[in-house]
Amino acid sequence: MHPALIHHHFGSKEELYDAALSLPVDPIETLTRLTQVPRGQFPEALVRHFVATWRDAQAGPVLHALLRRAISEPDQAALLRSHAETVLVPRIASALSIPQINVAAAFAQLIGLTIADTFIRIGPLAHATEDQIVALVTPAVSRCLAIS
User: Fold this and answer.
1) With the CA atoms of 117, 61, 138 and 142 taken in that order, what torsion angle do they form, in degrees rounded to the nearest 10?
2) Sign (positive/negative) of CA torsion 94, 75, 51, 129?
3) Is 16 inside any structural domain?
4) What residues have CB less than 8 Å from 95, skipping those under 6 apart?
5) Listed residue (60, 59, 43, 53) closest to 107, CA to CA
6) What percent of the chain has pLDDT over 90?
7) Which one of 3, 67, 93, 139 has the fewest CB atoms closer than 10 angstroms to its CB?
8) CA–CA dist 65, 88 (Å, integer)
9) Which domain holds residue 115?
C-alpha cells in the first residue's frame, strides 16, 4: 500500500496496524504512558501491564485469539511481527536507549509467560496472582532490558 493511502485512510502506520489487528488496547498510548515512568520502574510497569491486560476479562480473550491466529496462520504472524518490529520494539528501544534485540528478548519472555499461563494453563502459574507473576518475571525482563 502506498504511504499516502495509509495516511489518508488510517492516519499512520501504527493506526493501520491497530485497525488490522483489532487490538483491544491502544499500544501507542500504553507505551507512551509506560515510558513516562522512571527507567528503573519500567520493567515492572511493563510486566504488570502485560499480565493484567492478558488476564483482563474483556481484553484477554481478544488477545488470546490474536495470538492463536498468529501461531497458526502465517499471514497473521507476519502482521503481528511487522507491528512488533516497526512500532513496539523500536519505540521502547528508543525510549530506553537500548538495542532493539533487548526489547525483543523481553517480549519473548512475556509471550512465553502468556502461552504457559493462559493457553497451556500450567497449574502453579495459572493459579498465581498477578503480584506473584510480576515478582517472578520482572527480574528476567529487567535483565533483557539491561535495567537493574
Assistant:
1) 120
2) negative
3) no
4) 31, 35
5) 43
6) 45
7) 3
8) 19
9) 54-148
Whether 24 is covered by a domain: the verdict is no
Coil, strand or helix: which one is 97?
A: coil
What is the pTM assigned to this prediction?
A: 0.80
> What is the tally of structural domains in the chain?
1
Residue 39 lies in a domain: no
Q: What is the mean pLDDT of residues 44-49?
A: 95
Q: Which three cell numbers stand for residue 20?
A: 488490522
H or E segment at 43?
A: helix 42-55
How much of the chain is helix, strand and coil, in % rounded to 5?
A: 80, 0, 20
121-146 pLDDT, tens per residue? 999 999 999 999 999 999 999 999 99
Please state, in angstroms and rounded to a whole number, the distance separating the CA atoms of residues 73 and 42: 32
For residue 88, with 0-12 CB atoms within 10 Å meaning exposed, 13-18 middle and 19 or more buried, which class applies? Answer: buried
Query: Buried b / exposed e across 93-104, counting CB within 10 Å, b at 16+?
Result: bebbebeeebbb
